[in-house]
């Protein structure tokens, strides 16, 4: 009987050890299940975060493309404005040159006009002087003719008297 008691004691000990191992393994399995569910939730959250980041990256890429298009348009406009500015500068230079030429021409015309006016006034003064001198000569000749002997040939020539008028 001792053997039976030892066997029963041994079997109770083995069963206790087996029960302990089973309980211990069940606890480990339940902890692993909890960790597995936690890890699954973390993976799901991280996947959602990755999807959100991909969406944000896609949005940013679209806005970057729009900004690049606008930048290209602005570069084209800038080039057009620079070209237009250069053309306007050349046009302005041409206009300034033309204005200077026209100003010189107008100044020359004014000088010529003043010269013509002074010439005309000088001419009219000269005509007046000529008329006054002719009048003086005519008056002097009349005064001389009053004293000249018209019977002589030289006297008649001097006074412009012909024989018929005598």
Automatic annotation (TrEMBL):
The keyword Coiled coil applies. Residues 50-87 form a coiled coil. Keywords: Coiled coil. This is Si:dkey-87o1.2. It comes from Oreochromis niloticus (Nile tilapia). The gene is si:dkey-87o1.2.
